[in-house]
Design goal:
The protein has helices spanning about 1-25, 85, and strands at about 40-50, 55, 65-70, 75-80, 90-95, 95-100, 105-110, 120-125, 125-135, 140-145. β1 and β2 (about 55) form a beta hairpin. It folds into two domains: about 1-30; about 40-145, Beta Barrel (Lipocalin). It has two helices and ten strands, in the order αββββαββββββ. The chain has about 150 residues and is an alpha+beta fold. It has an eight-stranded antiparallel β-barrel.
């Protein structure tokens, strides 16, 4: 009798755990390789961590990323990094293209920026980079672009 109650309680707990996990992922993130990427994205998280230094919140210091992706995989937008991050102000066009393989997305634009070195994860309403190296390993970057 105790074994049956324990088994039933375990099944109920498993169902609740699965339900909680899927509901918490539904609005912001997903793992479906067919998620649409077309839209207008704005950086909601943008941090740089130079090797041997503390992490810098680029948005808090006035930086920004705005990216538009069209149905034919073309991009427009702007990357802005203020001088108080790398020592020189950077304003760069993101006009170019995207390539997507499954849940991975890469940007291509000329002239290239550090964004072209990154692999973005594609989630529902979000393009995400977590702690990837840039500049030959001299810095790490994390970025969340949220579709508006």
């Amino acid at each position: 009798m105790k074994i049956r109650r324990l088994a039933r309680a375990s099944r109920v707990a498993l169902v609740c755990l699965v339900a909680a996990a899927t509901s918490s992922c539904g609005s912001d993130r997903g793992l479906d390789p067919d998620l649409p990427i077309v839209g207008h994205y704005v950086a909601t998280d943008f941090k740089v961590a130079p090797v041997g230094s503390t992490t810098v919140d680029v948005l808090a210091r006035g930086g920004s990323i705005v990216l538009d992706i069209t149905a034919d995989n073309r991009t427009t937008g702007t990357l802005f990094v203020p001088a108080n991050i790398f020592g020189v102000e950077l304003t760069q066009s993101l006009n170019g293209t995207v390539a997507r393989v499954g849940n991975n997305l890469t940007l291509s634009h000329t002239p290239a920026t550090f964004l072209t070195q990154l692999i973005f994860g594609v989630y529902e309403k979000v393009l995400f980079v977590g702690a990837q190296s840039i500049d030959g390993g001299n810095a790490g970057v994390s970025i969340t672009l949220t579709r508006q």
